[in-house]
Amino acid sequence: MPLEVVTEMIENAIADEERTGRLANALRDRAATHGRTPAEEEVAGAVNFVREYVEHVPAYLRDGLEAARLAGRESEMAEVMREATDYWLTESDIIPDRLGLLGILDDAYYSLTLMQSVSDRHEEESGRALFSRNLKAANASIRNLIGEPAASQIDMYVGTRLNADPMTQMVHALTAMSSHRGAFPIPVGEAIWGDHSTEEIVEARLGRLGLA
User: What pTM does this model have?
Assistant: First the structure.
């Protein structure tokens, strides 16, 4: 199952970061471009933010699929999940996966930007967001970390997938079901960031590195 593969990739990337500190070094370098010299605890907090960000991918997708299953729309959400995990499985992604947490930033950004876009479109059509937590601030900070031109390339890919059939049909089906049954918004069962808002988390973890 793609979701199991994604979870394994995240676990391997976290283990790689513990061995190599690749992402931590990249964060120090990026902070330096903003004239910042972060303390080690600040770098560690930023690394933890990225780890938690990527861990939102399987958490969101599991909760979304379960909520859709209970509402009788599992096939529609399964299609959204397939689109959100498809990028993880390609061998020609923009940042090589072999770079650990740094290497799967583009994968996680693709998935969560796509899911946020689906949630936004659902809200436009039904008046309610698909997911309880809004990840726009987190996505923006990760986009900043990825940098150009890679970030714009991923955004373009998200837009292509979001506007293609059968994705549009799946969003419409979920919207119709939500309006009829009131089954959404979908909560995140694994409350990775607890009761804090995404904006608070981003500012606390990345603000002093100039990445918020």
Answer: 0.85
